[in-house]
Structures are given as C-alpha cells and as structure tokens.
Specification:
Blueprint (H helix, E strand, L loop, with lengths): L1 H6 L2 H10 L9 H4 L11 E4 L10 E4 L2 H9 L9 H32 L2 H7 L8 H5 L19 H11 L8 H12 L8 H5 L6 H15 L29
Antiparallel strand pairs: 1-2
The structure holds iron/sulfur cluster (3 copies).
C-alpha cells in the first residue's frame, strides 16, 4: 500500500496528526492500539509527538552510539529545554490515552472472541493458507511444524476419518493450527497486525493474538523485542514460577 499512501501525502498527514496529538485512521490497527507508541530501545529517537516542527526537531540519544551520532552532527545536547519538556508532557498524555484505547480494545475483543465456542466460530472461515504465519515477523522456525510432512496426509486417511466420523471438515485442523501458533507466539507477539492484514478472509487475528499475548506477557513480565538479554519465557524454566496454578 506504500505507493498509494505516499500518493495521498499520508506522511505529511501523519506528521501533522502526530504533532496535534491525534490518531491517524490510516495507520494499521496494531499501530492504533500500540502499547509502546514511543520507542523503548533506540540509539536515536526523532521526536514528533508534541513538537512544533516549525521550530525544529527533538532528537533524543538513547545510547552511546546515539550520542556519538549527535556529536557527529555537531549538535549540542540540551537537557530540560522547552521543546523537550513540551514533548515529555505530550508523551505522558499520549501514553495515558493509549492505555484507555487498549483497555477498550481488549474489552471489545473479549466480548467478540472470548471462550472456545466464539473462538471456533471466528476461525470458521479459515482456509489454512498460512499467510498469517508466513508474514509474522516473529514466527521463528526455519520450517514451520505445520508445513512439515506430519500434515501431508494421503487422501485415504481423510476418507478413513470421514467414514469414522460421518464427515470431515476441510481444511482439517484449523483450530489446532491457530491454538498451536498462539502457544508458540503468545509471549513473542509484538502486535504488529501483519497477520490480520494478510488474511484473505478478514479473521481478526491481531485482536486474538494481542489479547492472549498481552495476558501471557504480563504474566511472565516479558516485553517482546525490548532486549536480546531478556530470557524468552518459553525457553526459561524456573521451578518457583506459576506455583499458584492448581491452587486456585
Ligand atoms: S500481530 Fe503478533 S502474531 Fe500477528 S504478525 Fe504481528 S507478531 Fe505475528
Ligand atoms: S507456528 Fe509455530 S512451528 Fe510454525 S513457524 Fe510459527 S512458531 Fe514455528
Ligand atoms: S491468513 Fe487467515 S485464512 Fe490464512 S491461515 Fe491465517 S487465519 Fe487462516
């Protein structure tokens, strides 16, 4: 969609909207409900939120590399300047607003897809094209388990299942695919929304993955994409964690 967006001068609109603290309806849904509208880990941040662009830009160094870059540009650092203070206030306001937007988004999603029956209904139109898995930036396997020979069944096997059960839904195992992917991805989903955008049947994947992802990530106090030093919850086992499970 990029050429179309550029032709519409969306970049200008985006900057204007950011400047005025407004949401841009042309942004992907994932961006509109992002928990981190301000980057956590960057060498250099170009501040747009709350910044009067006619006066200049706010550049924030987030690392030694960023500081070196600013020095290379021969820019002198200014802590607590007017523009930086204004931006800080606008960012605090934006984060508060995003919190409310996300809360509403999760409430609506729970009403829409909460529970096994609703989930089965929502995934009903899935044709198992695997687009959602292919475009996902953090679906991490060289070869997805679902593209492996395990799922290459011969026609006789399908006929056998159909005979036993009286019927077989094609494609088979759609829920298995989604629930397994959710288990693999839950802690790592960054909420980009690429899966939802790539789905030919309009399945609200971002909503589902963000709802489950948010719950599970908070449970493990894990923020995906923040640092390579953080242990992946799926690969780290701690004897003392989640002991309350089964006690309730
Ligand atoms: S929203 Fe999550 S599951 Fe969907 S593509 Fe992005 S990271 Fe993957
Ligand atoms: S769905 Fe699971 S097995 Fe397939 S690529 Fe993603 S993480 Fe790997
Ligand atoms: S992109 Fe949509 S139709 Fe294709 S496998 Fe994913 S959910 Fe199913």
């Amino acid at each position: 969609d990029y050429p179309e967006l550029v032709a519409e001068k969306t970049s200008d609109e985006f900057v204007k909207n950011a400047w005025n603290g407004q949401e841009d309806p042309k942004l992907r849904v994932g961006c509109q409900v992002c928990e981190y509208p301000v980057p956590l880990m960057t060498d250099l941040t170009i501040g747009l939120v709350g910044v009067d662009l006619k006066q200049g830009l706010v550049l924030i160094a987030g690392s030694e590399k960023g500081e070196e870059l600013l020095k290379g540009l021969e820019l002198t650092a200014e802590d607590g300047g007017e523009a930086a203070t204004k931006r800080e206030a606008a960012v605090t306001q934006l984060l508060e607003k995003m919190k409310g937007i996300r809360q509403k988004f999760f409430e609506e999603t729970t009403a829409e897809v909460g529970g096994v029956e609703k989930l089965a209904e929502v995934f009903g139109p899935c044709i198992l094209c695997h687009n959602c898995q292919t475009v996902c930036p953090v679906c991490y396997c060289r070869e997805c388990f679902f593209d492996s020979p395990t799922f290459e069944l011969e026609a006789e096997k399908y006929l056998g299942v159909a005979e036993k059960r009286g019927a077989v839904r094609m494609p088979v195992d759609t829920l298995l695919f989604h629930l397994t992917r959710m288990t693999h991805m839950g802690t790592s989903c960054v909420g980009c929304g690429a899966c939802e955008e790539a789905c030919p049947n309009g399945i609200p994947l971002l909503k589902i993955f963000q709802l489950t992802g948010d719950n599970v990530q908070k449970l493990f106090e894990y923020i995906p994409g923040r640092s390579l030093e953080d242990e992946l919850p799926l690969t780290a086992f701690r004897e003392d964690e989640l002991q309350w499970i089964g006690e309730k």
